[in-house]
Amino acid sequence: MFLTTVFSVTVLCVAVLGSEKNWTYELISVESTSSDPDIADIAVSEKRIRRGLYAFSGFLDFKTDLDDTTTLDLRVYRSSTERDEDYQLTPFVIENEILTNFINFHYKAYIMAAIKDCAPTAPQYDGDYEFEPPFAKIRIDVNECGVPTDGFPNLMEYGMYKIEAYLRNDIEMFLKIIVRLEQNL
Questions:
Q1: Neighbour-count burial of 141, counting CB atoms closer than 10 A to its CB (0-12 exposed, 13-18 middle, 19+ buried)
Q2: DSSP secondary-structure letter at 104?
Q3: What's the whole-model pTM score?
Q4: What is the pLDDT of residue 11?
Q5: Separation of alpha carbons 144 and 48, rounded Å
Q6: CA 175 to CA 147: how far, in whole Å?
Q7: What residues pair up with 33 in beta bridges, in sequence order?
Q8: Are 139 and 59 contacting, i.e. CB atoms less than 8 angstroms apart?
Q9: Which N-terminal stretch is annotated as signal sequence (predicted)?
Q10: What's the pLDDT score for residue 17?
Q11: SS3 36
Q12: Cα dist from 120 to 29, 116, 117, whole Å
């Protein structure tokens, strides 16, 4: 009986959760700003690749070294409409993360592999390498990158998602990405 129950629950979990995402996304817009382009500059915008396929292109230019006085925040909001006032904060939040932790965990797990081909100047860390500051000045050129979805849940509510990222040090950089999640057909 126990084995039957375990098997049934396992089959149910696989059927409900699945190994594929129940959603696809469409990139709607990308905005970026820097409070002081002489220290760090960012210019990223959406680009139409072909009908129904969008990506973002641009650059991120750190003109000075960064250390752990640099913090990052990331918030993901969801709305069932396209109105700004309807966005609600989701559980996908990173608050006041120091640079070293962001690179060693979030960047390496979710971003690094996804941008490897479209941002060849972005840092790539092999294996168990642990990043230690400083993050040397660098210009990262981005050419037709999609929004990385590895690490996101397979099941997500459909609707509009707004991703806001802030980098703070002597300056403030801001990146906002809006995507529409739709049912994966």
A1: middle
A2: I
A3: 0.79
A4: 30
A5: 9
A6: 13
A7: 174
A8: yes
A9: 1-18
A10: 39
A11: coil
A12: 23, 6, 6
Give the CA angle between residues 117, 120, 126 to the nearest 5°.
90
For the chain, the C-alpha Rg in angstroms (whole number) is 19
- Two tokens at 83? 């109105």
- Cα separation, 27 vs 147, in Å, equals 8
On the question of pLDDT at 75 being above 50, the answer is yes
Q: Is 85 helix (H, G, I), strand (E, B) or coil?
A: helix
Fold of domain 23-183: Ganglioside M2 Activator Protein; Chain: A, (2.70.220)
- Any bridge partners for residue 180, and if so which? 26, 160
Q: Are 30 and 44 in contact (CB under 8 A)?
A: yes
Q: Token pair 């500059």 is at which residue? A: 41
Q: Is the dihedral of CA 149, 152, 155, 161 positive or negative?
A: negative
- DSSP secondary structure code for residue 135 in this structure: B
CA dist 54 and 52 (Å) reads 7
Q: Which amino acid is at 37?
A: P
Separation CA 103–CA 109 (nearest Å): 9
